[in-house]
Amino acid sequence: MKKRNLKNKVAVLLSASMTLAMLAPAMPVYAANSKLIFDFATKNPAVGNIVSNVEYSGSSGGTFKDVLTAANGSWRVNSSNLVGLPYWGSTDLGDSDNNFDPTKNVTNNNSSPWDVGMDLKGYRIKEWRNGKDNSTKVDRVEQPYFQNTDTAYYATLTDDGNNVASYWVTRRGKAGVYVPGVVDDPATPFKAGASISAKADVPTGYKLLNQSKADNGDGGKTIDIFDSQTPTPAANAQPPSGTAYAHANNVALDYSASQRSTINQAHNRDVVVNYRYDVDSDTKFSVNVWDVFFDGNGNEISRSKRATLTKSVLDDLGTVGGFDATKINPSG
User: Fold this and answer.
1) Which of 17, 40, 223, 237 could form a disulfide with 233 if both were Cys (CB 3.0 to 4.6 A apart)?
2) CA 154 to CA 43: how far, in whole Å?
3) Residues 6+ positions from 321 with CB-CB distance below 8 Å
4) Number of H helices, E strands in the chain
5) What is the pLDDT of residues 227-268, one digit of tens each?
């Protein structure tokens, strides 16, 4: 009997506990804020430190439509509340094709046009994807609501097929040192994001002073990036010398001391590459001084070596037993 009473009491307690649980009011669920992120940086490392991602915040369960159309009343939305992607047309939203369109879904109430606000003149969007890796190409968002975690779409950029700016190369001796055989490169137009490989061309007997992108060894920069854009330079167009580009330090274009060349991608602004040289005092050339005698008919009678001089480029030869000279050139 005791065991049976004990079992009955346990059953009663469990039943009461279940009843209380069923009758207890549900705990309120608080909506968390999350973001809809349009990522322009991750898949485009050359401009990753220049371009800004576009982000919109909303409450979990709220629609993207409400937030995006509040920011820009002309943002494209279909009957299922699915919104378009920035600067992209979509047939699901009534557009003629799925492609880049800088007039569609301009971010932040039309305050960020493609050329200026996004600073992407000369580029276009190649495609949008729903993830960084192993992702699917998309032409609009895939569902209409903010989630408990962020939702992100990733743009891949390419050039728009047109030249957007130019680069020049200057080659000079430090403090006016004479450097034979080197010339400047005239303006060369390039497309947005193009790789630029401008080599230094170091003459024998000289050394290149450039150390880094920011140091040309003569008080200036190896790479100057200006705010100007010269897609079609005139013949003999002079290098720009105006306002520096505000994000010049973030441009991927760099200088490799080991390769004696620029490397990586330019952006969409005019570039001047400055190479500077000085005499390499460790490189020597030999000059032989001979006495040669001829008869009245121009026939050589005799010759004897007076001296052999070992000098660097542009060294003063001085006077050698009556032989007076001033300079030696790289050919020896």
Assistant:
1) 237
2) 7
3) 289, 306, 307
4) 3, 18
5) 999 999 999 999 999 999 999 999 999 999 999 999 999 999
